Every structure is written in C-alpha cells, then in structure tokens.
Amino acid sequence: xxxxxxxxxxxxxxxxxxxxxxxxxxxxxxxxxxxxxxxxxxxxxxxxxxxxxxxxxxxxxxxxxxxxxxxxxxxxxxxxxxxxxxxxxxxxxxxxxxxxxxxxxxxxxxxxxxxxxxxxxxxxxxxxxxxxxxxxxxxxxxxxxxxxxxxxxxxxxxxxxxxxxxxxxxxxxxxxxxxxxxxxxxxxxxxxxxxxxxxxxxxxxxxxxxxxxxxxxxxxxxxxxxxxxxxxxxxxxxxxxxxxxxxxxxxxxxxxxxxxxxxxxxxxxxxxxxxxxxxxxxxxxxxxxxxxxxxxxxxxxxxxxxxxxxxxxxxxxxxxxxxxxxxxxxxxxxxxxxxxxxxxxxxxxxxxxxxxxxxxxxxxxxxxxxxxxxxxxxxxxxxxxxxxxxxxxxxxxxxxxxxxxxxxxxxxxxxxx
Length: 417
Fold this sequence. Notes:
3 domains
C-alpha cells in the first residue's frame, strides 16, 4: 500500500478492510491457503507407470533439499509415498541463495490428456483498463499449492531423492494442465465480478476502479501480465525492456529466437517492428548454424535503440464519440498500420502492428500493396473494430477512388472479410 497517496481517512478504511480479512492474508512463506472448490485430476492416455532413475545431487544440495522437503511435509504440501511412480527432482538455487525444488514432469506430461480450458486473451485483458484510476495486484502465496490434488491422481505426482520418496497432496508446478485448472478455479471464484472490476489471468489478478470508493489501494502504476499499467496507459515492464537493451549479440540460432521472442512480446509499442526484425527472422530457418551478417546486426542494434523509448499506448475508449482510426502505410518490404484514437484533444496510439511481405506481395504494384496492408490491418485489429465504426487513413490516392469505380475481381476479393 502506497500510504503517501492516501489520506488518513482512506488509510484507516484500508486498515479496517485488511483486519476484516486477515484469514486471507499469508503471514509467511509457509502459510499456504487451501481451497475445496476444485481439485486437480490427471487423466492418462495409457496406464504405464513412470519410473525414472534418481538424479545425483552433491552432498550439500542434497541436505538442503531434504530439509526443504521435510518442511513441505510439515506444511501439508507433500506426503511419503510407497507406490512405484517416480519422476526426477531438480534442485534450483535462486539468485538470493534460497532453494527451489522442481520436479521434471516431462514424461508424465507426455502421457497426460491435455486440458483445453480456454485462457483469457492477454491483449484483451490489458486493453480493458480504460477509465480505471486505481490499480492493485494480488500475489498468491505458492498459488498452485492452494489447490488439492484428486486422491486418484496423487500417486502420479510421486518423485524421489536418494533418501526419500514423496507424492504431492497439493497441485505442484510443472504439470501440463496446472495452468488450466488454476484458471478454471479463478473463473469460478471471480464469476460475480466483471472485467471492469477484476481481471485475472491464471495467477495474475488485477483489481481496478475509477474512484477510491470502488478501490481502496491508490497505486499509480502496477505490473500486470508483463506490462506497466496506469491511468495514462500501457508500457512494457522495465524488466522486459532491459532484457532487450542488454541482450548480447547472439551466437546461436536459439539465442536469435530468444531475442525475437522478447521483442515480439513488446512489439505493439514499436512502429514497423516486423519489418525491422525481418533480417533476424531470416536467420531462424532450417539452418542449424548461425551465419551473422551486417543486415542482422543493423536490425539488432536498431531494435535495441528503439526499445530505449517505447511508445506509451492508450486504452481504447468505446464510450467516446471519437472513432478508432487506422493509419496504414505499406512499403516494398511490409506494412505498419497504427490504431489510434483522439483522446483529451490529442491523437493517441493504441497499437502499432506490422507485417513483412513475402516474395509474392513484394511483386504487387504499390496500390495493391496498400490495399493488402489495409485488409491485413482490419483482420488483425478485428477484436478492436468489430461492431464499431472506424476510419481508415492511407496516403495512396488511387485507393480513394475504389468505392466510385468498378473493381477487378482481385480487388473485390480483398475487400471481402
């Protein structure tokens, strides 16, 4: 709670609220909640027991692992197992020096029937914040451990160390369907709230409000789903930006893919991003060996420079009389449409989208490429535009006359959805 932004009366109200719900507040890292609303079940494709050999761990790490497991046993997270199922445990030392124990469930996951429960769209969640002034996030202590395992599935979670054999009573991290189960739980728990009150993506929950009476926590800016969201708009999380600007020159194809992955997560904030990183994308084809070239290096450096000052994006205001506008400018290499809206007397960008042309599109005449860019933009921005009036801008004059002239079959086909 940022007390500097609250009056004494508001602070008192927050204090009363917290005291009212003390049972919901975790007092330490071992104070984990428990729900009976839903249980996690593992359905197997075939009933074949997994018996992986125990991985060797050095003495000190093994000792620390056993102490951690004993604490988890005390906390009711795991229990001793006497069944043959066994996956490998992987001790991970944190940067702070602490220890996190993970279980390698890749073999179990390959034999598990996948849960296709739908997850919310990330962009829909972030862009739904228009009109909100107060933001706060909820952090669940060991979120997955709040969910009980179905008794029939508990033996499947078993894992071993050189000294002990355990199984999970609570839902562990690493199971392929854990995210779907947790999203299902949160949908049930928060079903009475609209997205104008609370948004949840798996374990990331954001409570919002336009006034303090709707929302007790006055936070000017919070992190949500990899973004910094505030009343002003949306910015990429600083950690993601630093991940791009501090990225070393790639030495392998895998490192190029990693860089492109971070860039693509934040690409809505950079104009013509796809066109710029095309030389990098061309290095990630079938070739296993990276052949770095000057075009790739220029693209790499240009992206790092652009991400030092990413664009602040606005939330679309669907209640405003101002229409959404699409500005499209197609070039020989690609198109970079911009979705914007006039808000507070200023034109504010909502999203920068982009695509690079293939060989066939590059052979189009300039007017055809512009039309292709318009069509692509409308399809890409469909979640923003469907059911609403919008304005399209282009600097290609011949396109203006399409509505007053007889179009070719080629052009008519492109104007259809």
